[in-house]
């Protein structure tokens, strides 16, 4: 019974660590995107047929 309690505690701890890591990564990406705005995938050329 003790092994199941330890396994459950470790699973919960890893889930919490994963959620916190994802939150920190999202903050880092959000801060990085504020400094340089996304301007598309390069120069967009418009071709006009006359």
UniProtKB/TrEMBL annotation:
> What highest taxon heads this organism's lineage?
Bacteria
Q: What is this protein called?
A: Uncharacterized protein
